[in-house]
Design brief:
Arc Repressor Mutant, subunit A; RpiR family transcriptional regulator; 2 domains; 286 residues; SIS_dom_sf; elongated; alpha/beta; Rossmann fold; carbohydrate derivative binding; 5-stranded parallel sheet
Length: 286
């Protein structure tokens, strides 16, 4: 019942339904409905203490909603609030509620849960399509904007060692406005779009899709606008229970993705050896 809730309206309906099943569940449901932003920063123990119920009641509540437990619900809640939970609001909540080191273990738990999902992502057909696309000889455009684009230089740096014709475009790039001039059949696009979804990136992907460009996406949720623009896309979770989104899981994902793509690129060993020789000749490293 509770899996993959997309909106606050759906969350409210779900809470109202479960609240009618027991007085304890009603107490928990009311607190969640009134304090969902604060809950993003809470551990199971802290939520139980705030509501005034046992940890066991908290666990049973979320299992009754169809989740594996509180952390599973928290992942879904983070996806819902990611658009509303701006950096100033996160800072406000952390200061108001004294959220400092005592919440570090909650962040670690969320990240570990995120990383455990990578194995299942790697088994999907969408992931395999992206791997094959990266390993192809077609020119590749890496497309992103705002905070999502901070991952892209890392990806471009490694890809450039693996293969040629890899380009990084952001809204500040002169080439951003002329991508549509390329032949859609002679270029691939890898778009990286994490919350909060930049309008400029969403609209660019929509226009490129209309012009029949082949877009492959890495985003965080099935409800991301990038999903409908992509030939293939994967959802990589990230943690929003901090002042700023935590990108450690997406970074690990890209490292694995590039490793798998490297296995499919013919002649990569020679290219890597040639690059190493050039770097030694130019004394690139201290």
């Amino acid at each position: 019942m509770g899996k993959n809730i997309e909106t606050f309206e759906q969350l409210t309906v779900m809470l109202k339904f479960i609240a009618d099943t027991s007085p304890t569940y009603k107490k928990i449901a009311i607190y969640i409905n009134d304090n969902y932003l604060q809950i993003v920063f809470m551990t199971t123990n802290e939520l139980a203490e705030q509501v005034g119920v046992s940890q066991g009641s908290i666990s049973r509540f979320f299992m009754a909603l169809g989740y594996r437990g509180y952390n599973d619900f928290l992942q879904n809640l983070q996806n819902i609030v990611s658009k509303e939970l701006t950096a100033p609001k996160r800072l406000q909540f952390t200061e108001k509620h004294g959220i400092k080191d005592k919440y570090m273990h909650s962040i670690f738990d969320n990240e570990l849960a995120n990383m455990e999902k990578l194995g299942s992502i790697m088994e999907t057909d969408e992931y395999k399509k992206i791997v094959s696309m990266l390993a192809s000889s077609k020119p590749l455009i890496l497309l992103s904007a705002r905070m999502s684009s901070t991952i892209v230089p890392y990806v471009q740096y490694i890809l450039n060692k693996m293969r040629g014709m890899v380009y990084k475009y952001t809204p500040s790039s002169p080439q951003w406005d002329t991508i549509e001039l390329a032949d859609p059949e002679n270029v691939n696009i890898l778009a990286v779009m994490m919350p909060r979804y930049p309008r400029v990136l969403v609209e660019k992907c929509q226009r490129l899709k209309e012009k029949k460009f082949h877009i492959y996406g890495v985003t965080d949720s099935e409800f991301s606008p990038l999903m409908e623009c992509s030939d293939a896309a994967v959802c990589v979770p990230l943690t929003v229970s901090s002042i700023f989104d935590i990108y450690s899981t997406p970074m690990i994902f890209f490292n694995i993705l590039l490793r798998d793509a490297a296995k499919e690129i013919p002649g990569i060993s020679k290219r890597m050896e040639d690059i190493e020789k050039i770097e030694l000749e130019n004394k690139v490293y201290y």
